[in-house]
Automatic annotation (TrEMBL):
SUPFAM superfamilies: Nucleotide cyclase (SSF55073). It comes from the Bacteria. Its EC number is 2.7.7.65. It catalyses: 2 GTP = 3',3'-c-di-GMP + 2 diphosphate. Residues 239-368 form the GGDEF domain. This is diguanylate cyclase. The keyword Transmembrane applies. Pfam families: GGDEF. It comes from Duganella margarita. InterPro entries: Diguanylate_Cyclase, GGDEF_dom, Nucleotide_cyclase, Rev_trsase/Diguanyl_cyclase. NCBIfam families: GGDEF. Keywords: Membrane, Transmembrane, Transmembrane helix. The chain crosses the membrane at residues 30-46, 52-70, 82-102, 108-129, 136-158.
Amino acid sequence: MATLMAAAMSVVLYSAYLNFPKEIHGLREWAQALVLLVSGVVLFALHGKSDIVLLFSNVVMTWGLGLMMIGTERFYQVRPSWWIFHSSWILIAVLLAYWLWITPSFSIRVALSSVVVFILHARAIYVILKHGDYHFSMWFFVTLMTIESMMVGVRGVLAVTSNSDVNLLGAGTFASLYLATAHFMTLMMTVGFMTVCTRRLQITLERRSTLDPLTQTLNRRGFADIYAKEHALMRREKTFLTMLNIDIDYFKRINDNHGHAVGDRVLVDVAQMIAKALRVSDHVARFGGEEFVVLLPATGLDRALHITERIQSALCTARPGVPPYTVSIGVACQTSADESLDNLLIRADKALYCAKERGRNRYEVAAEVVQPLRAAARA
Ligand SMILES: Nc1nc2c(ncn2[C@@H]2O[C@H](COP(=O)(O)OP(=O)(O)OP(=O)(O)O)[C@@H](O)[C@H]2O)c(=O)[nH]1
């Protein structure tokens, strides 16, 4: 039953592989791993008296467990340890053949295969703990992997200490317990992997909904979320914040003269150059087209102008693959927490318009809000 369910799970994983965003790796390897494990179990059940089939079923299962490890590594963006994968199945094939035909010993065969499987699981557990995000889903996944590897370890130890009980084709207590739980654990480990994949999917989609795909800066929605947080902080801490509205000059000409691809490269370049000139606590967003907005939390006008000049002078330096271009910047400082985001954006936009009007490649500062906005709203 558990074997049938594992086969069904491989279809689920493969379908997830086809439909999940391509940056979520490892699903294909896990789907292939389940197919191999199911095939290995079927071969093992059918092996009868044939040692060749027994040997082959063990190799197939080692491929399956190896692919689970590779899938886990790929999921956590770790370079796949193909050398562990290949050494494992070659070792299993050679050593099992030796202890099957040359010096037949059932207990050594079990001990050896347990050691190999244990190493594959241990590597996966190490990768999860080193690169995981310490969320519930990760702990669930790693706990299941650990239980499975401990079961394998116990079987290996029992093989060399008590001879007969570990034979999976026999009727010993451990063999019955092991068989009952081993297939179930394969299923559970897959569920654990699907849990971390689902969490990764959620994070990826959330990020996609708040990021501009070309420049990887915030989009309008992401910016509004960040602004709400910074605005609440500003109200609490009674500080200022400053907004820069940055627009590339004559961007249409860049597209017309160099092509859209170079235009896109310029957009990525400007996002990178702006980010380089900022602190990590500052935020950059692309508001569509060639317009960028920067939010400088806890920053008054003097410091904001310093940053504005830094951005403009950084853009003057020649960079390979990017035609020369300039930007105009509108600077608006928010000194009252009662001012709305829309109003701040309008002031920054007006200042930008002024900079464009006055010849471009320059900045202009927005007029301050003259009267307290609450009083104005009440009037
Ligand atoms: N390559 C590229 N071009 C874009 C993208 N989005 C908008 N544009 C182009 O940006 C240009 C904006 O042109 P305008 O609004 O006339 O502005 P401008 O030429 O920069 O002139 P000023 O802002 O007045 O200095 C248009 O040609 C759009 O096609 C994009 O994602 N990639």
